[in-house]
Specification:
Elements (H helix, E strand, L loop, with lengths): L3 E6 L10 H10 L2 E6 L8 H11 L2 E12 L2 E9 L6 H31 L7 H8 L5 H10 L6 H9 L9 E2 H10 L3 E4 L9 H13 L4 E5 L5 H13 L3 E4 L15 E2 L3 E2 L3 H12 L1
Length: 285
């Protein structure tokens, strides 16, 4: 039996529930032997996760999920793997991004608290959010705070009633710049969960063609947005363009869709071949 793997999970350093160490412990208990922590625009949790992995028998790969834009497509997500976490260019770019993210979250909190005040409710404290996040505050942290207060029952309600009405513009990396940034740090650049970008296959073909020309190296074909037929289509696109294939659950710990570590809904366990392809690419970079 091949070891279980998951190459796309999140900790509280971005918008997950669990600390990097607790996340690795959960993975170890689930039989995961190779894990990649891919927090949004943040690598603060990578080294703590690597250390926890050494202690708990889980190989933890450095990872990140960069928020990108391409033409009319906002929120294209790019996964980076196996990079040097101490690379100064990568660290500086992410520090700049996190400063913007912090200001954005604080502006959203101000709007939410103004809305709560008008409804006769007590404000949400910034200090409590910072303690919960353990890193940069994201919208899920705001949603969880509202749920804990009993102001909403679900994440969906929190977004509908508070986060969307109180939203602030988000910052994105140009996707070409993000690919170059990951590769300059010695990593492998992979397009995350493509169905969430577009389900128009012709548009996806154009995107893959352009990004492959910009240095994209892989495609996260195994993801919770695909059914079996779509999975085969993405695998064929990867083969045609000589892109490596990865897979991940995108586990945050707060999913209403019941994401499971090491599994995707369409087929079950993520194939170990995803790790082998990734390691081969890192060995050749």
């Amino acid at each position: 039996m091949m070891p279980r793997v998951d190459l796309h999970v999140h900790s509280c350093c971005s918008d997950g529930v669990y600390s990097p160490r607790d996340l690795v412990a959960l993975a170890a208990n689930a039989g995961i032997r190779v894990l990649a922590l891919c927090d949004h625009d943040n690598i603060d949790g990578v080294l703590p996760a690597v250390q926890a992995g050494i202690e708990l028998g889980v190989e933890v790969l450095s990872g990140v999920e960069l928020s990108c834009v391409w033409n009319d497509y906002a929120d294209v997500h790019l996964l980076g793997y196996g990079f040097d976490v101490r690379h100064e260019g990568l660290q500086q770019s992410l520090r700049d991004f996190q400063r913007f993210r912090a200001r954005r979250s604080e502006r959203m909190l101000e709007k939410i608290n103004d809305l709560l005040s008008r409804r006769g409710e007590a404000p949400v404290a910034l200090t409590a959010l910072l303690e919960r996040a353990g890193g940069s505050i994201g919208r899920p942290h705001l949603a969880m705070a509202l749920m804990e207060r009993g102001l909403v029952g679900t994440m969906e309600e929190a977004f509908r009633d508070y986060l969307i009405p109180c939203n602030e513009p988000k910052r994105f990396f140009p996707v070409e710049e993000a690919i170059a940034l990951i590769r300059s740090a010695g990593g492998v650049a992979v397009l995350a969960h493509p169905p969430y970008i577009t389900r128009d296959h012709e548009a996806m073909k154009r995107l893959l063609e352009v990004l492959a020309g910009e240095g994209l190296q892989g495609l996260e074909a195994y993801n919770n947005g695909v059914n079996c037929t779509e999975l085969e289509w993405y695998l064929a696109q990867a083969r045609y363009r000589k892109l490596l294939v990865t897979g991940g659950s995108d586990f945050h710990g707060i999913e209403e869709g019941n994401a499971e570590l090491g599994r995707i809904r369409s087929i079950g366990d993520i194939p170990y071949t995803c790790v082998e392809q990734l390691q081969a690419a890192l060995g050749n970079s």
